[in-house]
Backbone:
């Protein structure tokens, strides 16, 4: 069966080199839907608690929220970093607190200090699904990802079979010692 959760991201981007309006910098509220597949954990009668899926995903995905997403060859990138540098916010600001851990994958690199994500490919809704799967595939048994942004939407199904031991009392993933980090249950 599947447990399904949704999270929202507000971001700015553009399609560098694209011939439509999207070549200009603009913003969206994007909605990411994550479907996780596994057996039903009979202790709690759920696949996985949806708030826990959200928490796991948000840890990395918050780097995309209130962020600028630019392709690595976009000339706006050095221009914006130059402005941030001169303004003294390139390496962080006291009010910039919603930061996830910096990440670097084949497809994207996050710079949480200046709320920037640099991508290898143009960040279309399809591109976002590739990036998100790469970031979360080892943490969750992702069966399907859907990303919508404005009039655009894309989805892809996956077969992800991580063996995740779940707590029979509260449903969350047990740690490497078989202990529930939330309620202390031991396998
Ligand atoms: Zn757009
Ligand atoms: Zn527990």
Residues:
């Amino acid at each position: 069966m599947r447990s399904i959760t949704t999270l929202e991201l507000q971001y700015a981007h553009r399609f560098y080199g694209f011939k439509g309006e999207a070549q200009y910098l603009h913003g969206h509220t994007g909605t990411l839907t994550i479907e996780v597949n596994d057996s039903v954990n009979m202790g709690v009668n759920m696949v996985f608690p949806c708030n826990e899926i959200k928490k796991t995903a948000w840890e990395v995905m918050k780097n995309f929220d209130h962020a600028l997403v630019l392709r690595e060859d976009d000339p706006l990138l050095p221009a914006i970093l130059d402005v941030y540098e001169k303004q003294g916010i390139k390496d962080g600001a006291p009010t910039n607190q919603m930061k996830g851990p910096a990440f670097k994958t084949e497809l994207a690199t996050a710079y949480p200090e200046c709320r920037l994500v640099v991508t290898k490919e143009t960040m279309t809704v399809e591109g976002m699904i590739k990036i998100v799967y790469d970031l979360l595939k080892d943490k969750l048994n992702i069966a399907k990802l859907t990303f919508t942004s404005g009039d655009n939407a894309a989805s892809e199904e996956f077969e992800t079979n991580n063996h995740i031991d779940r707590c029979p009392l509260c449903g969350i993933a047990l740690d490497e010692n078989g202990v529930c980090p939330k309620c202390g249950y031991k396998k």
